[in-house]
Design goal:
It contains three helices and four strands, in the order E-E-H-E-H-H-E. The chain is of the alpha+beta class and 150 residues long. Among the domains are: 39 residues, no CATH class; 49 residues, Membrane-bound Lytic Murein Transglycosylase D, Chain A (Roll), CATH 3.10.350. A two-stranded antiparallel sheet has the order 1-2. Strands 3-4 form a two-stranded antiparallel sheet. Helix 2 packs across helix 3.
C-alpha cells in the first residue's frame, strides 16, 4: 500500500477588475475617481473531495472472520474435551476378591510366595500393592485383597 501525498497550492485566477470606492495607498487612487484597479487575484482552492467510507478488502474480511471464529473454535474444543465424564452407577464392583488377614511378622513377599509359588514374587507383590493402594509397610491384622488370578 502506498499513499500519495499531494500538496495543492492555491490557484490564482484573474477576475473582472472592480471599481475602487476607497482610497488605495498602493495605487494612489481616490474614492469615486472612476479609475479601475489592476487585475485582482482571487484564491481558488480545489473542491474538497467527499470522504468515502472505509471499505474492507477480501483479505481483511478473512482475517476478521478468523479473529472472531478462533475463540469460538477454542471454546468448542474445550467443551468437547471436558464433556463426557465418567458416569457413576449405584452398583458395586462386580468382581469379588479373596481377602487375607496378615499375621504378625508376615510380609507381602511371604504372602506372594505362598499364593503363587510358580510366579515371580516381585510381580505378585506389585499387583497386590496396586490392587490395595498400599503406600507404606503393612501391619499385622491388616486385610489384603488378593488378585483374581492367584
Amino acid at each position: 500500500m502506498s499513499a500519495v501525498l499531494a500538496f495543492t497550492a492555491p490557484i490564482h485566477r484573474p477576475v473582472e477588475p472592480d471599481y475602487i470606492d476607497e482610497p488605495c495607498s498602493e495605487a494612489g487612487i481616490v474614492r469615486g475617481s472612476g479609475h479601475t484597479n489592476n487585475v485582482t487575484y482571487v484564491n481558488f482552492l480545489p473542491a474538497a473531495t467527499p470522504t468515502t467510507r472505509l471499505r474492507i478488502t477480501k483479505r481483511g474480511r478473512r482475517i476478521l472472520t478468523a479473529f472472531v471464529a478462533l475463540p469460538l473454535v477454542i471454546g468448542a474444543l474445550v467443551a468437547a474435551l471436558n464433556s463426557g465424564g465418567a458416569v457413576a452407577t449405584a452398583e458395586g464392583a462386580s468382581q469379588d476378591f479373596t481377602y487375607v488377614t496378615l499375621s504378625s511378622g508376615e510380609t507381602l513377599w511371604h504372602l506372594a510366595a505362598e499364593i503363587a509359588p510358580n510366579a515371580d514374587p516381585r510381580d505378585v507383590v506389585a499387583e497386590i500393592v496396586s490392587l490395595n493402594n498400599l503406600e507404606g509397610p503393612v501391619q499385622a491384622g491388616q486385610k489384603i485383597a488378593l488378585p483374581a488370578g492367584y
